[in-house]
Amino acid sequence: MKIAILGGSGFIGQKLTKALVEKGELRGEKIKQIALCDMVSPQTDFKAEFPITYKKFDITDIQSVGDVIEDDVDVIYHLASIVSGQAEADLELGYEVNLDGMRNLLARCVMLEKPPIVVFSSSIAVYSADTPQPIRDHFIRAPRSSYGTQKVICELLLNDYSRRGLIDGRGIRLPTITVRPGKPNAAASSFLSSIVREPLNGEKAICPVGEGYSHWFSSPRIIIRNIIHAAEIDGADLGNDRCIMLPGINASVKDILAALRNVAGQEVVELIQIEHDQKIKDIVETWVAELKPNRAYMLGFFEDTDFESIIKAYIEDEMS
Prior knowledge:
By secondary structure, this protein is of the alpha/beta class. Helix content is about 40%, strand content about 20%.
């Protein structure tokens, strides 16, 4: 089993690699090699019984994509993209990375020895908060952001190339992954990690939306389990629509503050200030907050129990 992870040096890419190293196999076969493909090298020094290589590449360059994906690759995890806020701020860059990058990957897949399994990280940004919630399986995708639009187009391409037998595609619509370690990034949803992470580290945090704002969340632990599971399910069970909304939990800012208070105390919660930011609100308020992913449950995907468990997992995994 040979695996390529596009965006392998990122937060999720490195956690996925660590989990695959511990697992040692995928789809019932021993892992022989993992190639981490990214613009920067990973920060983690993985110790595995098989080779883990770093390959520098640019997903916007079709030649570069061709150079890093070997002819006999079995599974490709496509995690490489620019985030929502950046895609909204720079229209051309968003389409160049998020859409043209997918086209470059698919062009390479057509040339491979056999159709690879391609797990594509999509997003709940493909939906719109204008529609009645909860959102159910097969509901119309009607994004109100450039990022969401780019993901929808990539989903359609994934379905079409799978229909033609050129790939065995699986698109997974990720909830907002919380809590992420490190510093805030350009994602419009970045504050949803910051309002937990910074106070736990004794630092002040700004929340750009009110306490009533609610969203759809998943922890890094569960996301990694679901990304791995996406490659292991039988493609035939997906039918014609290869894209799935993942399980998550619905929580408001008020719920997050209550969970943080229960885990870490009121003094930690007092480090959070609400300062409305209209640019952020204009993006995140178009996103859905509640979904009913029955199809994902039937396919064996996983979910968190509550937001307190998400906070505790962050403390155990990142602060210990």
